[in-house]
Amino acid sequence: MSRTPGTSRASKGNKNRRKSRTVTESSQSLDVNAKTPGVRRRGSSAKLEDDGTQMENQKSHAKSKVGSVQKTVGGDSEYYHKALHDFVMEAVKVGPVKLAADFTATRLAMPKNLPKTAFLANPTKNRYKDVFCLDQSIVKLTWPADDPNDYIHANYVPIEDQKKYICTQGPTEKTVIDFWRIIWQEKCKGILMLTEVMEQGKKKCEQYWPTKLGEEAEYGPVKVKVLKILTPEDHLHCTRLEVSAEDSTLTVEHMLWKNWPDRGVPKEYLSCFRMIRKMTQYVPVVVHCSAGIGRTGTIVGLEMMDNKLRKGEVCPLSDIVAELRTHRHGSVQTMFQFLYMHRTLMELAVNKRVVAKDELKDFYEKYEVIINKQGAS
């Protein structure tokens, strides 16, 4: 059933996939009194760039559940640092050219016949006809109960069996109301928007929220009001929204990453982790770009990889992408986004001082050549 958008009052993975290895296994056990092999550290007085974890790092070091084995470094476990180090150095060894080839192979191996009946039955509610919404992880609209339309192009993406993310397309004129229905239904307290409304003269997303301080708008059964506007970084625009329905309210943090090129990559790296750390407190988080798979998959995939590393596990990033695609089909669209994920994790490793920047010089140079040659930045 088609509706008019809001009106403003103010104006399982591949079986052949390599299994992840855990650096905490007995064959690779760590001597907690020894320095981590290959890990370089500087004096504690040096200032770290904020990677979104500094607040955690300043907390007192409570004893880990596994006792002295989980020795911490700046709030992180040594197993995390070791896993991050090993992942980065393996990527350096492979190099960006081979990683790009691996990504192409991963795309060819992507499952092609997963059920998508709801997607096929609702063509007018899909932004792109070749970006599928899988039945197995689809978010079904159930609120309000008297609305017969239960379809939205959105999928749950779990991390550690928790429905942490809802990945969706940028709302269209016909789906703005459905977008706010899902926010209210799932009690989402965070929205991460990775596209702008207009990019290179083309509409990539509907203007689905009010933008001026104090402005209100109605979207079907939901009312939205702007409470606060912040710009913590040049490319990040944050809006605190009051969402109300059924005589109750929900505070929602809306974070817009500006100037991330479609199908390309930004120049910022640690911003990804700052956003991830901030959004962790707002679970479940709705993440979208235009199609809801490229930039969206890049950010969600980075947290999936970081989460694995924090458990002391190391695997190729292609395994993470393959797993992500079983939930949100087509996630991580381009090899540039795939390489950017590696480059971002390298920047994180440098910031945490588990590798020296000089060790990554060759990778960085080749990465820049690939990105600039294709005009992806």
UniProtKB/TrEMBL annotation:
Source domain of life: Eukaryota
Biased composition (Polar residues): 1-11
InterPro entries in the record: Oocyte-zygote_transition_reg (IPR052782), Prot-tyrosine_phosphatase-like (IPR029021), PTP_cat (IPR000242), Tyr_Pase_AS (IPR016130), Tyr_Pase_cat (IPR003595), Tyr_Pase_dom (IPR000387)
UniProt feature, compositional bias: Basic residues: 12-21
GO molecular function: protein tyrosine phosphatase activity
Region (Disordered): 1-69
Name assigned to this protein: Uncharacterized protein
Origin species: Bursaphelenchus okinawaensis
